[in-house]
Every structure is written in C-alpha cells, then in structure tokens.
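Work Package 3 (structural annotation) set out to generate three-dimensional models for the target panel prioritized at the project kickoff. During this period the team completed the workflow that converts sequence records into discrete structure tokens, so that structures can be stored uniformly alongside our sequence database. As a representative example, we reproduce one entry of 523 residues exactly as it appears in the project archive.
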Amino acid sequence: MKRLYKSLIILACVSLTLISCVNDLNTEPLSENTLTPEKAWENPNSYAQFLAKIYAGFSLSGNEGPAGSPDMNAPDQGEATFLRSYWNLQQLGTDEVIGAWDNETLRGLQFNQWNSSNSFILLNYSRTYLNIAYANEFLRETTEEKLNARNVSQEMKTKINAMRSETRALRAMAYYFLMDLYGNVPFIPEEAGVGAYLPEQKDRAFFFSWIESELKAIDGQLPNNSKSNYGKINNPTVWMLLAKMYLNAEVYINQNKYTDCLTYLNKVVSAGYVLEPEYKNIFVADNHLSNEIIYSFVFDGVRATTYGGTTFLLAASYKSDMNPMDNFGFSQAWSGIRSKETLSDQFAAGDKRAMFWKQDRTRETTQWSDFNQGWSVVKFSNKNKDGSNGSNNVFADMDFPLFRLADAYLMYAEAVLRGGSGGSISQAVAYVNQIRTRANVALIGDSALTLDFILNERSRELYWEGHRRNDLIRFGKFTKGYNWPWKNGVYGGTPNIDDKFKLYPIPATEISANPNLKQNPGY
C-alpha cells in the first residue's frame, strides 16, 4: 500500500481561498458545536491531517475525489489540480507534445502565444500559492509557543517538528516552481497571518537565496531513502531540489553553480536508488514499488482520485481505437495529446523508451487538431508490472515521478560538461551508458558526450515528465535558434520568438488586485 498522507482529510477548522494570494478568513462560529481552529488543534491527529492536506495540494483538487469540495473555483476541477496545470505549462509549448483540443487557452500555450489572461497560467499560479498558504498556516500553528499553550507532550513535539521540516520543504518546492515559471513573484512570510494582505514582489535572486537557505536548514532532518516513507519529502528530495536550482543558476541568477550541483548530485546517487530494470515499469500502476523514483506526486484509483494528475496524462493520451481497457487497464480515452515529430524522430531503432502507438496515425502533425496526426504516446499505463489492471479503470493508480535517478545521472553529466568540479567525464559516461543499456541502444564514448547529446538524451529519457521547457531554456533553445512544428502557431514553426516567453506572465487578475506587483517585461 502506498505510504503517502494521500487520503484527503477534511479540515473543518480551516478553509483557505486564494484571491490575490490570501483573502480575509476571519469568521465567527455559527454555534457552540462549530469546530473552531482552537478546538481542532487540540486533537493530536490534526497535525498529521493538516500535513496530509499540504501534500494533497500537489495532487488533488479538493477534499472529495474526484472533484468534490474543491479548494478553489474552476469550471473544470481536473484543470485546477497542480500537476495538470504545471504539466501544461512545462510541456505544451515545447517540441515534445501537441494537443488536439480546440480552445483558446490551450492554443495559446502550445503555439507559444500565451498572454496574462491565459486560464492555465492563472490556475497554476493560484494553486501553487494556495499550497504555500496551507504550509504557512501549519507553521504558524506549530510554533513552540502555541504547542506549549496546548500542553503538547515532548514526544508529540518531536513528531510535529519533523512535520515542520516536511512543510518547509514543500513550501520551498512550491516557491521553486513559481521562480522557475514566473520569475519575480510575491513572497508571503508566514508571519503575515491569515487575512487581507497584499504581498511584496521579490526577484529571482531573493528566492534563489531563500529557497537555498530553507532547504539547507532542513537537510538531515527528513527521512532518508526508505519505502516506508514513500511519497513523503525526504533528504534526497531536498538534494535534488538544490541540484536543480544550481543546474539552472545561470538562468535564474546569472551565476555558475555547477560545482554545487555536483555536490548534491553525488549525495543523491549515493542514497541507494537504482535504475528500474525495465523503463516501462517506471510509469505503471504500481510504480510506487520502483527503486528509481526519488519523489513522486502520489495518486490512487480508489483513495486519491482526480480528473487531473496522472488520470489526465493517461486519458488524454488515449483514443478509443487503442482499446485502452485491454492494453492499458483504463477505460477513459479523451483523444487529447500526442507526440510531435521532433520527439518521435529522437529515437534509434530498438530504443525501448520509444513508447508510441503508430497504427492509424501519421508521424507528421500538419493538422494540430487531428488526434490521428502524430504518434500516440503510451508511456503511461494503469496496468501493474505483472500485467494485471490497477485498482480502478476510471482513475489512475500511477504516481507521477517528479524526481528519479536517471534524471540525476543526466544532470551529473551536464554539470561536468559545463565545468563543475566534483565529477568526471568517465563517471558521467558510465552513468549515461547505464541509462542507454536499459534502453537497448548503443553505448557512447567520451567524445560523444556533448551538451547537444545531453539535451537530446534528456528528451529521449524524460519526455512528457515536465522537464522540457526548463531544459530548452537552460540550453538557450527555447526562444532562439531552434524550430519545431507549431512554434508560433504555424506548422513550419518559427525558430526565433520573443524572449519574453522564457517567463510566464503574472496573471492579469493578480496585477489588477495587487498594486505591489509589476508585470513581467513584454506582457
């Protein structure tokens, strides 16, 4: 059974709604029987329940699956989940995916023509700040002073302090996503409390330093690699977050941090993770058993259901002619997203990572709205490793691997090539060849390990896992000098687009609501 605080607990004491980051929540109890915050925190179970809510904020839409008791308003609660909006922002505007659904919001994303009114940009921004608001509330309610006032035992304090470390890590991760996607964003200190508040905007230099200090402060206070803690933030997750920041430091703060990146990657690769023997088994219903996954967003077909998350990734990838129930253990087929030819052309013959459905499909995507144009991606499945079906054929069991060992290996190779100390070309080649051995493709020698090779290998290994936009920006190929189908809204593409698209805009509603905010250049 998956070990995540994944069953959503209804916290009757707190209902957070995000409007310009935080709105006024001061209300009066309706009766003496109403569960107030003060009464709720007297229950020792409330602390674990609230932490569960923070975790669930990255996977689910509300307190009742798949779409009931929502955390925030949205016409489609599946779209209001963090992973679905985050995946769309990191993948749709790249060379890996094309969508068939004809609406202005998705067209704007996949044609690299979005603006500050794009609904997915607002949904992702709002959901991420809502998760930060949950984390801040937990930290405010678990100070030493408040725990003493409640006469919390020392044994319970020790447990709560461990939860505080997890909460700080989850909050730092949320700010990392915001820094990466939007650049200069509001910062909400936990001391601000719950109520009407217009936060100040901070730049990437502030957030880089703040996230770094938060993660370093809790390093060593979290669990190590252990199946008993699957789905929870652990020390290797913190190391991967730091390594990601350092790998992208030249983008974020115009500083070379590749040596720091290697320092933490060396810790990750020494933490006991191993490559999954079969690539396809990283993306199946029981992938929580994989020894390669460092951290994942957890889903469950019975107890953690949503129309976002991995249910979206499976259903949107399938069409009924693929017989998804028999082939993938899934009854939903939305005919939404498939591969661009720039992705399908990446793979050599026999590469086990090339998981495509080609029957009755064309390689070319000359008609973007025709699902039959472009190979269907069948990387994600609701079958278990042994071929049996998952627990539910409507909602996915598959967890989304945010961080895994193969990514760390490729990051190591890139950091070495970019001049970082603490690694070697020979070790980098060895790591890459472990990945390629599993993929059943030719091994490489030292001379073949180049940055261009790494960018392409990252696509072959990590496609559709939420890395591509970030990778293309870091390699200087997102807005300049690289073309793909439908870039800038035409099939032939446009190699060069405005550099403003390296960042998403602050949502227009936020700019209107908070005079402290300044819009990103060009929007």
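The two ends are 47 Å apart (CA to CA).
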